[in-house]
Write a structure and sequence with these properties.
Helix content is 39%, strand content 13%. The protein is an alpha+beta fold. It folds into 2 domains: 4-166, 3-Layer(aba) Sandwich (Creatine Amidinohydrolase, Chain A, domain 1); 171-461, Creatinase/methionine aminopeptidase superfamily (Creatine Amidinohydrolase, Alpha-Beta Complex), CATH 3.90.230.10.
Length: 462
C-alpha cells in the first residue's frame, strides 16, 4: 500500500467531489471483503479486498470496514482486535489503532460496531452497489432494506464521484500498473517458451500463474489459456496443444497493492504461423493499431472501437470472407459475426476497472448503450481523458454456432460470404491485447518491450 497520507488525500477529494454534486452531508459506508470459504470456513479462496476499500483505505486484510463523514471529512476504521487464537494460527496482526494509522483514519472502532453505528446514525448512508452477497446482507441489516433491494439503492452521486476519481490514474498508480504489465509480459513469454505439441493447456495455465505469484501479487483474473480461441471466455483447461494449431493466452498479474495487468497473445504451436493464421493475425494487429491511433483526450472510445471494426472488415473482405462496402457493413453490424465484443475496457485496481459500479457511469457517462449485437458488448464508449488506462484487444473469431445461426437466417448476407467463412472454422480465434495510458496528447503503450509482430512472435517460438 501507499503512505497513509495518500488515502487521506483521496478521501478529501471524494468529499469535495460529492460536495460539488450537492451532497455535503451523509455517511459513506465502505464494507471491506471477508474471507470466502471454498467448502468450510478455514479453507478459503485467495483473499481479494474490495477495490473501493483499497482505493480509499489501502489495507488488503479481511473483515475491515470504514465510514466517511461528509460534513466533517473524518473517517472511522473498523477492525477486529487480534485474539490469542489469531496469534497462534495466523501470527501477529495489527491492533485496531494500528490499522487506523495505516490509512490515516481519524478514529477506530471494533468491527462489531460497524453495523451498530450505521443503524444508529441519523445521517443518510451512501454506498456503492455491492457485488458480494455477504456485503448486501450486512448493508441490509444496517439499513432495514431487503437484500435484493440493496444494489438498486446505491448512491448515484457517490458512484459518479468514485468513477470520476478512480478513472484518472495518479502517477503512483501508473507505476504500479506498469509493474503489473511487466509481470504479465513475463507470464506470456514464459508460456510461449514452455509451449510445444502435446503440452496440456493446464500445464501452460500453471506456468502463467507461477510467474504471476512469483511477482508477489498473483493473477489479476482467471486466465484464459486455450487451443479453442473461438470460445471468448474459455476457463477450462482440458486440451493439449497440437502441431499446426494456435494457442491463445489471455492472462494478467496484479501487484501486491492490487493493480492489474491484462494482455492477450495468440501464437503458433509450431515454429511458424500458417499462411491463413498469419493473415488473420495481421488483421488483428492492424485493427489494434487503428484503434490505438485514435486514442487521445476528447475522442470517444467508441470511435476507436469502430476504427478497429472497419479494419477487421476490410481485412476479411480482402480474404473473401466479407464483401460489400466496409462502412456500410460496419454500420449494419455485419462485422460482429467475427468481432462480437468491444475493443477494450478501463484497467486499474480491477482488471475491468470499476465494472461493479455499472457500465452506465464507468463507460457511458449516463448515456444510453447500444442494443446492437457486438456493439452492445462495448464496455467503454465515452470520451477518453488523460490519465485513463485502457486495454485494446481486437479479435477475429470463427465461431461455429454463431456462423451457422446467422447463415440460417441469411443475416447480413450482403456482407458475409458464409461458404467462405465456413472454410475458416478450423482456425478458431485470434485476439491480441495491449494496455495503454491516455496522455495529454495521445496514448502510451504500457510495460516493457513485447513485440507482437508476426516475425517477433515466430522468433519467440523458434
Amino acid at each position: 500500500m501507499f503512505e497513509p497520507s495518500v488515502y487521506e488525500g483521496r478521501r478529501r477529494v471524494l468529499v469535495s467531489l460529492l460536495a460539488g454534486k450537492g451532497v455535503g452531508s451523509g455517511l459513506v459506508a465502505f464494507t471491506g471483503n471477508r474471507e470466502s470459504p471454498m467448502n468450510y470456513a478455514d479453507n478459503a479462496y485467495r483473499f481479494r479486498q474490495d477495490s473501493c476499500f483499497l482505493y480509499y483505505f489501502g489495507i488488503a486484510e479481511p473483515d475491515l470496514a470504514a465510514t466517511l463523514d461528509l460534513a466533517s471529512g473524518r473517517a472511522t476504521l473498523y477492525a477486529h482486535e487480534s485474539t490469542i487464537d489469531d496469534l497462534v494460527w495466523s501470527g501477529p496482526r495489527p491492533g485496531v489503532d494500528e490499522y487506523r494509522a495505516l490509512c490515516a483514519a481519524y478514529s477506530a472502532a471494533p468491527r462489531t460496531r460497524y453495523i451498530v453505528d450505521l443503524k444508529s446514525s441519523k445521517e443518510t448512508i451512501l454506498y456503492v452497489p455491492p457485488y458480494r452477497a455477504e456485503t448486501a446482507l450486512e448493508l441490509s441489516q444496517a439499513l432495514g432494506l431487503a437484500p435484493e433491494k440493496i444494489a438498486a439503492a446505491g448512491s448515484v452521486p457517490l458512484i459518479q464521484a468514485v468513477v470520476a476519481q478512480r478513472e484518472l490514474k495518479e502517477a503512483r498508480e501508473v507505476a504500479q500498473i506498469e509493474q503489473a504489465v511487466d509481470t504479465t509480459i513475463a507470464m506470456h513469454r514464459a508460456v510461449m517458451a514452455a509451449a510445444e505439441p502435446g503440452v496440456t493447456e493446464a500445464r501452460l495455465m500453471a506456468e502463467a500463474y507461477r510467474v504471476a505469484y512469483a511477482g508477489g501479487g498473483g493473477p489479476s483474473f482467471p486466465a484464459i489459456a486455450t487451443t479453442k480461441g473461438a470460445v471468448l471466455h474459455n476457463h477450462g483447461y482440458p486440451g493439449s496443444l497440437v502441431a499446426g494449431g494456435l494457442f491463445l493466452l489471455d492472462a494478467g498479474a496484479e501487484t501486491v497493492s492490487g493493480y492489474a495487468g491484462d494482455l492477450t497473445s495468440t501464437f503458433p504451436v509450431s515454429a511458424r504461423y500458417t499462411d491463413r493464421q498469419k493473415a488473420i493475425y495481421q488483421i488483428v494487429l492492424d485493427a489494434g493499431a487503428a484503434g490505438a491511433a485514435l486514442m487521445r483526450p476528447g475522442t470517444p472510445f467508441r470511435d476507436a472501437h469502430l476504427a478497429a471494426a472497419r479494419t477487421i472488415t476490410a481485412g476479411l473482405k480482402g480474404l473473401g470472407i466479407m464483401r460489400g462496402d466496409v462502412d456500410e457493413a460496419v454500420a449494419a453490424g455485419a462485422h460482429a459475426c467475427f468481432f462480437p465484443h468491444g475493443l477494450g475496457h478501463q484497467m486499474g485496481l480491477d482488471v475491468h476497472d470499476m465494472e461493479n459500479l455499472g457500465e452506465v457511469w464507468v463507460g457511458y457517462d449516463g448515456q444510453p448503450k447500444s442494443t446492437v449485437f457486438g456493439l452492445k458488448s462495448l464496455r467503454m464508449a465515452k470520451p477518453l481523458k488523460a490519465g485513463m488506462v485502457m486495454t485494446v484487444e481486437p479479435g477475429v473469431y470463427f465461431i461455429t454456432g454463431l456462423i451457422a445461426a446467422w447463415k440460417a437466417e441469411q443475416r447480413h448476407a450482403a456482407f458475409i460470404d458464409y461458404a467462405e467463412a465456413e472454410r475458416w472454422l478450423d482456425l478458431g480465434g485470434v485476439r491480441n491485447e495491449e494496455d495503454w495510458l491516455i496522455t495529454s496528447d495521445g496514448a502510451r503503450l504500457l510495460g516493457g518491450s513485447f513485440d507482437k509482430s508476426v516475425s517477433a512472435m515466430e522468433g519467440y517460438r523458434a
